[in-house]
């Protein structure tokens, strides 16, 4: 039974765009509960400027108070050298660097061009100097909502350049849910062939309903690492009302039903997903929290017994 | 480029469980607009007793007033001999018969056991006598929300028995969204091998988020005919709050993006999906109506131009 590894990103990627501040103790509790569910990795927070993302201004406190479970990697977003210093101090297990493969998206999101981002991140990698494993998340790798197509060669070029700098892994992100399964298979096969020593993770959004189909295509192509977000939180400012990240519980439930080993305690994860709307104070897109697991049975209506006689 | 054929079931399967009566003229207009989108088949209504399903009490009027487009098949649900008489009078292109492969679900839904349903439908088939093509929709073929697993042999046995009676096609229905892609592949491959002369259609629900992943698995296994419901309308009383049928527009958009020929005018379909909430007076689950097509571009924020300089 193949093993699939999940990284839950709700506490960083999910919470980051939430309108109401989530109390620090709720964040710590959620990370601890995710640890108990059996996630391989948890993206805990971001060492961005507290002014830029007030929601994650408690990064140090959260990292200092979570209960670290052996076998779970606690990763953090590191935007620059200052972030790397803070991440070192907080003893993160992995630093996750981010840039876009689309020039316009990088300008819109990070307020600088791709080359400036690349060289900034290269400095972070040099500074970290192999002391902590580094992952790079490449945004809009399957298309940019402002530019349209992002050629696969452009994505592969950035993967190559970061691989040359010695990063451990790269996450290929479908930031606004533009990927389709055929495109995913093509990308996944090519990257695995070319970068045999790199940890490859795929990050899908369900903006256009294709999230789990893309996950399936990636699994069929041999990818074993995925990002997911509890409840499907996290979204896309270009598609208000649409879903965001694929829901961890929906994705994991599907793979479990197919016979994959996700390492996750699914009833526990489902319970957590059902508590999430209370934490964020609104409904969330995840489906199995509403519908139950495929194996959850319902009683037959009372008249069925009479009819049977 | 492979051709995929879609049957939109919103006017029957979707509307059937809507709480507010949808005016007859809205139904007629919607069928006519679906015809213009290029659907291969449209399930227009049901010739059930008007008392049992008041929503579809206008079946004759709808069938009498729609504008039939050559190349589009107008199918209707036929529950019994009386329904078949009415369907003949209304000149339906296909009669769609329904029963469950789970005993408990058949009792709950049709208030009789499976064998009684089978022999009732056999009488309808005999009465129709080849004058109109017949399709049989087999419910809960991937699992029953009350019994749990439905063995594939049981499903195949019913397919065999209906094939022996000379039906043209069979629709394998995941009535409450319990199917997973591995199960779908196994079912699709086995049925296609065994029933080479039967028109096979798959009908998925997105109750647990797996709808388009299941569609992908079926397409990969060679299935070319699918049911979908505009907006993802139609649902499952056992999963309140969860999605119902796969959304025609989301499914068709995905296959189109992958390079399949769906025969559908997608911008026109998207427009129709965006009008649907006005017809049913509530939000609907379909995603691309909210998010737009993958190829719909958005303007970059104004500061991007300044940054570029």
UniProtKB/TrEMBL annotation, chains A, B:
Extent of the signal sequence: none
Record keywords: Lyase, Metal-binding
Record carries keyword Metal-binding: yes
Enzyme Commission number(s): 4.1.3.4
GO molecular function list: hydroxymethylglutaryl-CoA lyase activity; metal ion binding
One of the protein's GO biological processes: ketone body biosynthetic process
PROSITE patterns xref list: PYR_CT
Family under the similarity heading: Belongs to the HMG-CoA lyase family.
Protein name per its UniProtKB record: Hydroxymethylglutaryl-CoA lyase
């Amino acid at each position: 039974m193949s093993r699939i590894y999940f990284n839950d990103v709700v506490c960083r990627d999910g919470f980051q765009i939430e309108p109401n501040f989530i109390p620090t103790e709720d964040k710590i509790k959620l990370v601890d509960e995710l640890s108990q569910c059996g996630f391989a990795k948890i993206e805990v927070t971001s060492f961005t400027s507290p002014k830029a993302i007030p929601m994650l201004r408690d990064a140090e406190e959260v990292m200092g108070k979570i209960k670290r479970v052996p076998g779970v990697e606690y990763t953090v977003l590191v935007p620059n050298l200052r972030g790397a210093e803070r991440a070192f101090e907080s003893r993160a297990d992995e630093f996750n660097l981010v840039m876009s493969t689309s020039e316009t998206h990088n300008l819109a999101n990070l307020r600088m061009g791709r080359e400036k981002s690349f060289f900034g991140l290269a400095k972070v990698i040099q500074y970290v100097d192999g002391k902590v494993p580094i992952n790079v998340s490449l945004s809009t790798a399957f298309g940019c909502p402002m530019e349209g197509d992002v050629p696969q060669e452009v994505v592969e070029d950035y993967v190559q350049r970061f691989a040359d700098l010695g990063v451990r892994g790269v996450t290929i992100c479908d930031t606004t849910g533009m990927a389709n399964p055929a495109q995913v298979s093509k990308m996944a096969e090519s990257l695995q062939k070319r970068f045999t020593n790199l940890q490859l993770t795929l990050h899908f959004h369900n903006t256009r309903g294709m999230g789990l189909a893309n996950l399936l295509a990636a699994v069929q192509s041999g990818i074993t690492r995925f990002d997911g977000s509890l409840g499907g939180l996290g979204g896309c400012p270009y598609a208000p009302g649409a879903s965001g990240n694929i829901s961890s519980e929906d994705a994991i439930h599907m793979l479990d039903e197919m016979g994959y080993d996700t390492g996750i305690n699914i009833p526990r994860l489902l319970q957590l997903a059902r508590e999430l709307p209370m934490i964020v104070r609104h409904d969330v897109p995840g489906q199995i929290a509403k519908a139950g697991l495929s194996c959850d049975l319902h009683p037959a209506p009372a008249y069925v017994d009479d009819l049977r006689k």
